Amino acid sequence: MSKDQEYQPLISDTLEEVDVDAPSPQSTRICRFSTWVMHSGLPALVAIETISLVILVAVFLQRPSQAACGMPLGSQKVLYSPALSAVEHEVQVYHLGFPGDLSPFQMHSSPELDQMWSDLYNCEILQITKEEATHLPNKTHAIPGDPGHYIAELDVFHNLHCLNRVRMALDSDYYSDWRISTSNNYIPTQKSAAGHVAHCIDWLRQSIMCHADTSVIVWQWDARANASLVKGNVAHTCRKFDKITEWAKQRVLVNAYDPTVHIKDDIVVPILHQEMS
């Protein structure tokens, strides 16, 4: 065998001559990098992600809600109202309105009952700022003698006003001015009552349909009746009426409003909203 063809030992043959415990320069660098990642890099990365998440949540919470701005909410649209800032929700169970679960409003007609109804909507006519009036979907009028303020009414209070008028018409023996004649021989007060109540009944119909309550009435088994009976004492998601009333009372129009005074302003309502007016 020539020297050029001399036997060259495999590396396995010389393992005893290799220091396996001595790391190579490359493996040393890899080890140091891994140690840095575990002790410094990974905590730093976690800290950065945590800070980013906190900033993201803070920005989200500071953004005005779509409902408050009257902007589209998903596939739905929530029109602007200055009272949206007062809206809070709660769960309520209605009075059934039958003996055993009567509402305080089901007492016989009396001055006390009239006052209870009046207290529900005695903040009916409001004054809002020009800034608030500018964002309304329908234009409203400036208040004469009160620069910078515009007249407004929340529909919930108009609904209560209407319901009260229907209630009074149902007890015309007590509220004689709200007696509705079944003939064409109206006296002036009766004609006014008939037209007003007709308006109120249909307005309330539209409002009920508009705010369609999707709370579920259930049937439950009644052992005494040996049948499943309808149960109306179920939970409803409601807007807190007290919160909205509190908001309105801070904006009640105190002075008399003169509708004969025309005040021009520079508020421009989009064409879409003008068509709704």
TrEMBL record:
Q: List the residue ranges forming a coiled coil, or say none.
A: none
The alphabetized UniProt keywords are: Membrane, Transmembrane, Transmembrane helix
Membrane spanning stretches: 42-61
Question: From which lineage does this chain's organism come?
Answer: Eukaryota, Fungi, Dikarya, Basidiomycota, Agaricomycotina
Would I find Transmembrane among this entry's keywords? yes
Keyword Transmembrane applies: yes
Q: Sorted alphabetically, which PANTHER family does this protein's record hold?
A: CYCLOCHLOROTINE BIOSYNTHESIS PROTEIN O, YALI0B05434P
**What family, per the record?**
Belongs to the ustYa family.
Protein name as annotated = Tat pathway signal sequence
Q: In which pathway does it act?
A: Mycotoxin biosynthesis
Looking at the record's lineage, which domain of life comes first? Eukaryota
Q: Which GO terms describe its biological process?
A: mycotoxin biosynthetic process
